[in-house]
Amino acid sequence: MSSPGRYIEEIKKVFRQMASLQGDAGTVSCFEFVKGMQATEQFQHCSVDELKEMFFDVAADGVVGEQDYMITEEEFINALTLKHPKSVQQAELKAAFKEFDTDGSGVITAGELRTKLEEQGWKFNDEQFERLTKQADVNGDGNISFEEFVNAFKQDRE
To answer: In degrees rounded to 5, what are phi and psi of residue 9?
Structure first.
């Protein structure tokens, strides 16, 4: 996504699609929220419980313990931009991890990593690639777990 404005427009589009499931374009229920988010590539790897938690955090309307069980478009935008940047980042990291974990085993093998990186235009000699994988594979088991993947991503950002 190239600009914040475009990102907001995409968020609004997702909200309107969810709201139209029940014919109400003004609010979204928890059920609509979960179904809509699961259909969104960025969040399809979140569990139902994670999505429900995100929904109820937003539906609280600022009063502790008081929820209306519906969210508006404004609340939805806030959930995905202001209130839950960590949830958004976590969902993006899960999606990226799944792209590298091509066999769905829950870990990224050295072969999967090399193939995906080369598909993206990266070129490594064997020594460089070994150094890269050793940095990411903290426990030395020959695979990169989701936790190791996240840690490597964070180190790369620092």
So the answer is: -65, -40
Residue 86 · residue 65 · CB < 8 Å? no
Task: In whole angstroms, give the CA distance from residue 15 to residue 37.
Answer: 9
Integer angstrom CA distances of residue 125 from 17, 82, 128? 47, 42, 5
The model scores a pTM over 0.85: no
pLDDT in tens, 128-150: 999 889 889 999 999 999 989 88
DSSP 80: I
DSSP 138: T
CA distances 112 to 18, 44, 48, 100, 116, Å, are: 35, 21, 28, 6, 6
141/108 Cα distance (integer angstroms): 11
53 dihedral zone (left: phi>0; alpha: psi -120 to 50; beta): alpha
